[in-house]
Amino acid sequence: MTELEATQHRPYIGVISDCALQRHVLQNVLVRYGLNIAIICDPSLLEGQRQERVEQVDCWLLELDDEEFESDALDHLIDQGEVPVLFGLGKAPPKNDEGYISWERRLFDKLEEHLGSVEILESEASLLALDTKVANQPQVLASEALESGSSSKQRPVAKEIWVLAASLGGPAAVKEFLDEMPININVGFLYAQHIDAHFSHVLTNVLGRHSNLDLKSMVQGSCLREGEVAVVPVDHEVVFNADGISIKNSPWDGPYGPSIDHLLANLLRHYGARCHVIVFSGMGNDGALLAPRMQRQGCSVWTQTPESCANGSMPQSIIDLECTELTATPKALAQALIARAGSIPIMLNDEPATPTKSALAGQDIYHDDQQNLN
User: Which domains does the chain have, with CATH numbers?
Assistant: First the structure.
């Protein structure tokens, strides 16, 4: 769904629960996804709701502790066949519980079965508007880049990989981050942005045109190099091995591409503690499934401050799990990484990184966790 479509119509949800805490949790998560709430009430109050509000509802969520409760209004709601009624999702775990992410995804999987995609994606117009804002900024000339040793052919293979993960509002935040990066930064980047595949080339062109770093689409068999930002494909899974990048014909798991959780699992399997993630502005909770495991494996998990995001849902889901090492604005995150990278030894060999031996060897860590969503 594009921003324009989102402004034209966002689904209206009706929430019926006899638990005040559950109503509160459902309200918060629905609002974070930009959905409208037409009605939210105890089942005993359903009969008194205004008819015009009832008619607005595109989907009902029903969660009852007292399964013996009966009312004519509730019976009518369940029996009518025009508007879907979802129930049986169970109570939400605490937000700092890793099981919360699975619960939230089950909820939105069910909603999307009936409503279609509920995530708002960047539109082409928003990307081009971002390009217009920075059109007058000074650009690095190719000759200057060569003199600084920034040519991709001269750069060593990156030993430290940082994933820049984002959804709605991500391009502006990631651009602010990349604007701070010096040409000779000695880490490699993967940019995973939820976006319509038709606009991915626009994203690459807009951000790459004004960056000191090389921003490019992934190439089969290539290596991740220092000072390079590889844009993760929307429609094709990517895996990493001793021979470099392998772009598969298979799609990413999940409703949106690229799947940040799926990408992190593939990256963690090869790089171990030498891969890290920064979660920028975005809707939903992609990345939250793998973030705790990355933290336990010694990877760094950073987040943009939700207050500085166009939509703070993605970073907030990481913060709620208490596994973020640093939360800051995009500019401050960049400055922190520059300071950190200064202590990372520069490797001069041009061979792909060898797989890290870790407790993850031979495990399908992503699909192990995905089983919890079913």
Answer: 3-115 (3.40.50.2300), 149-353 (3.40.50.180)
